[in-house]
Amino acid sequence: MTGFQILLSVFFCVVIDNLKNASSEVHSSVEFIDFNRYKEPTVFIAILVRNKAQTLPFFLTCLERLNYSKSRIHLWIRSDHNEDKSIEILQEWLSEWAAHYHGVDAEFSNSPPYRLPEETGPAHWPPSRYSHIISLREKALNAARHMWADFVWLLDSDVFLTMPEALTELVQKQLAIAVPMLKSDGLYSNFWCGMNDDYYYLRTDDYEPILHQKKTGCFSVPMVHSAVLIHLKVQQSDELTFMPTRLANYKGPHDDIITFALSANFTGVPLFICNDHIYGYVMVPLDKDDSLSYDKLQLTNLRLEIMVDSPPLEVSSLLEHWVDVPSEDHLGVDKVFMINLLRRPERRTRMKECFRVLGVNASVVDAVDGQLLNDTTLHEMGVHLMEGYVDPYHKRPMKRGEIGCFLSHYYIWKEVIEDESLEKVIVLEDDVRFEPFFRQKMDSILAELER
Description:
Number of strands: 16
Number of domains: 2
Family: Belongs to the glycosyltransferase 25 family.
Protein name: Glycosyl transferase family 25 domain-containing protein
Order of helices and strands: HHEHEHEHEEHEEEHEEEHEEHEHEHHEH
Strand content: 15-25%
Helix content: 25-40%
Pfam family, one: Glyco_transf_25
CATH architecture of the largest domain: Alpha-Beta Complex
CATH class of the largest domain: Alpha Beta
Number of helices: 13
GO molecular function, one term: procollagen galactosyltransferase activity
Domain Glycosyl transferase family: 335-448
Radius of gyration: 30 Å
């Protein structure tokens, strides 16, 4: 035998011996369960868009940044009767992102017409509008069932899911219906804790503790909307509907979310609102006679409110050109000052972003840091404490931080007195929380002062 033949014979002997050893060992399937890596459940996301050009750049940015495999997500998008650039924004976003998802089913109807029959404005909801929305939501629900999706997520386009893990967290709860609690710039949210005999909102004592996260978890409530995740593998989900005609002896209003809530109730499927995380935010709905420009003001309110406790609402570079950036002014006065300690850069960053959103040209003033003050520096600055002075509230001498705060304001007012061009100024500190409609309220105050 040649050397090669000998080597080949040895190789086959080793392989056959290993196969014999492998085949002689028997393993239980339990031993291999931990080695399995499972794919994420499939999610069918249904999105209805109408006149949402102001929210879409932020909504779509949040959507694309969800930490969930896009190959396991199918998008179903419908848009019609728009008076703005909603369709153009959707088309631009889809041209970049559609290929990343398992599939996209998008139907856009160009306008005119801008209104449905009976509508008097973009925020008016006559029966024809409810009928249209009911039909679309039912089609989305049935399309998800037909695709054998594991979940369907009915997501409104004025919702901002700022938590990238939101979808993962909700899916893992394995609830028949799970909804992330969404905050706004007030008491409005996407759930009710009470429903009256006419099936409309009823104020209860349970609402605010859930809204303000005084108690956390997932709570069964009579009504949810705006970001409803339905587990389609739950057998009872087959009976869920938005169509009043599918419910026997239905006596409720012609309303999509109320019909859905009652169908869940009749089927015995609980509606869970989950507030165990800050999942995101939702816009306050417009009233009947409100304009689309008013919705832009409400978006400004919400963006400012988000920055109180969270990072700013972000928009991708792809869509940032769709976001209106207001021109800057001095709020009707000669100068706006903002006092900030250098050792608090996060507050400076937040305030600068607030000013950018509001369109305020503000001058940042480095505050006098009380931690750097001592008797020597105070003496050099010519600052002397009044003998025997105590804080009228705390009944104690002034602290260094309070002295620094006083000096910061003192130097600003000194500048105002010395600069004859400054007749009216506004002085803000870096922890200010801007009221909703801040600019409009400021205009009203200044007008009253002029009178």
